[in-house]
Automatic annotation (TrEMBL):
Binding site for Fe(2+): 94, 96, 100, 139
Molecular function terms from GO: acireductone dioxygenase (Ni2+-requiring) activity; acireductone dioxygenase [iron(II)-requiring] activity; iron ion binding; nickel cation binding
Pathway: Amino-acid biosynthesis; L-methionine biosynthesis via salvage pathway; L-methionine from S-methyl-5-thio-alpha-D-ribose 1-phosphate: step 5/6
Name this polypeptide is given: Acireductone dioxygenase
Localization, UniProt: Cell membrane; Cytoplasm; Nucleus
Membrane topology: Peripheral membrane protein
Cofactors (names): Fe(2+); Ni(2+)
Organism encoding this protein: Dioscorea cayennensis subsp. rotundata
Record InterPro entries: ARD, ARD_euk, RmlC-like_jellyroll, RmlC_Cupin_sf
UniProt enzyme class: oxidoreductase
Cofactor binding remark: Binds either 1 Fe or Ni cation per monomer. Iron-binding promotes an acireductone dioxygenase reaction producing 2-keto-4-methylthiobutyrate, while nickel-binding promotes an acireductone dioxygenase reaction producing 3-(methylsulfanyl)propanoate.
Length: 192
């Protein structure tokens, strides 16, 4: 199963809509790799015993895995207090000082990331998709019209989930990301 991504239109309609341009402009995985995004498709029915997930965690140093049922991000109306406010916060453009690692166990949603030209790329994540956003990349998250997603978060070390809203051009993670992005311009980064 391939990850779907596309360049977004400039519409202010409901953030949960696909926001395709007309005509649609799909973005290949190779372009996502160029901006530092990593992707795997795993078996979410066996995440507790998945050898592929275990291997990824070992290779990338993800030694903290939020995976107890109470710690999974189960995002939908009725399960999250102040649901609309939380969704609005997730959709505010921001960076993190560390990688953001999300594994979709159920449902679906959208991660939007900025490309080299500062255009939005919308990435549709579905059950089994695991993505890694590099530290310092501008991004945001929203649900799609199904209004449901269950995500597992992984971390290197203790969990830190601090969002720094744009602009953050002086943040060390942003400066490092920009430096790596343009030094590796045209060179595909390691991905799966």
């Amino acid at each position: 199963m391939a990850l779907e991504a596309w360049l977004m239109d400039e519409s202010d309609e409901d953030q949960r809509l696909p926001h395709h341009r007309n005509p649609k402009e799909f973005v290949p995985l190779s372009k996502l790799e160029e901006i530092g995004l990593l992707y795997w498709h795993l078996n979410p029915q066996n995440y507790e015993n998945d050898e592929q997930l275990k291997k990824i965690r070992e290779e990338r140093g993800y030694n903290y895995m939020v995976c107890s049922l109470k710690d999974l991000l189960d995002l939908c109306p009725g399960k999250v207090q102040n649901y609309e406010e939380k969704l609005k916060n997730f959709f505010t453009e921001h960076i993190h000082g560390d990688e953001e690692i999300c594994y979709c166990l159920e449902g679906s949603g959208y991660f939007d990331v900025r490309d080299k030209d500062d255009q939005w790329i919308r990435i549709c994540i579905k059950e089994g998709d695991m993505i890694v956003l590099p530290a310092g990349i501008y991004h945001r998250f929203t649900l799609d019209t199904s209004n449901y997603v269950k995500l597992m978060r992984l971390f290197i070390g203790e969990p830190v989930w601090t969002a720094y809203n744009r602009p953050q051009e002086d943040h060390p993670a942003r400066q490092s990301y920009i430096k790596n992005l343009f030094e590796n311009s045209g060179v595909a980064l390691e991905a799966h």
